[in-house]
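Propose amino acids for all 191 sites.
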């Protein structure tokens, strides 16, 4: 169950197994994937373990493509959502963050502040990945730090169902992509 602003709940079921990275992608990992070993030299030493902060949805999808060995002309990410690396659906992200009950990643959870960099504890600055405790699944930085892009298009009300995935609403040019987790400058209840 995922709480929604009007006090109701939605029910989502994830039936397909998925993998998700233990940490957010770091500046040095992104440089290696996108530009090779030489590109990692351009990342300042003190920034190498920081999460990527300037990734558009398209860049994040291109990085997933590169890790999977896909070429840009292999079709859009929604046409191949189960092949290789991809961005998580919102439902997958919610499960990875909050566990089967979806409560572990909630800002009201007693362990939330030990797991997330937010406005209340970040000093209004970004921190290297994995410097807070891991969540229930051993994943770091699911809340706070930087927001994570999801595969879905953004809609006001989260979609219920089995393996829900929000595909492109019309008109496509007005579409926004979904992201989750908040960021280091956001108050806890937004993460």
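Proposal:
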């Amino acid at each position: 169950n995922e709480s929604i602003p009007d006090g109701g709940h939605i029910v989502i079921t994830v039936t397909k197994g998925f993998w998700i990275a233990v940490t957010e992608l770091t500046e040095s990992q992104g440089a290696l994937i996108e530009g090779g070993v030489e590109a990692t030299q351009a990342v300042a030493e003190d920034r190498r373990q920081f999460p990527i902060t300037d990734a558009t949805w398209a860049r994040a999808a291109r990085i997933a493509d590169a890790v999977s060995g896909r070429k840009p002309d292999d079709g859009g990410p929604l046409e191949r959502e189960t092949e290789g690396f991809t961005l998580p659906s919102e439902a997958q992200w919610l499960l990875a963050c909050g566990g089967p009950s979806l409560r572990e990643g909630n800002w009201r959870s007693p362990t939330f502040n030990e797991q997330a960099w937010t406005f209340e504890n970040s000093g209004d600055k970004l921190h290297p990945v994995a410097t807070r405790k891991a969540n229930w699944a051993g994943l770091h930085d699911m809340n706070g730090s930087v927001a994570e892009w999801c595969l879905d298009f953004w809609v006001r009300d989260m979609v219920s169902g089995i393996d829900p995935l929000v595909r492109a609403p019309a008109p496509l040019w007005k579409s926004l992509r979904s992201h989750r987790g908040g960021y280091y400058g956001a108050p806890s209840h937004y993460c």
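The longest strand covers residues 148-153. The longest helix spans residues 57-68.
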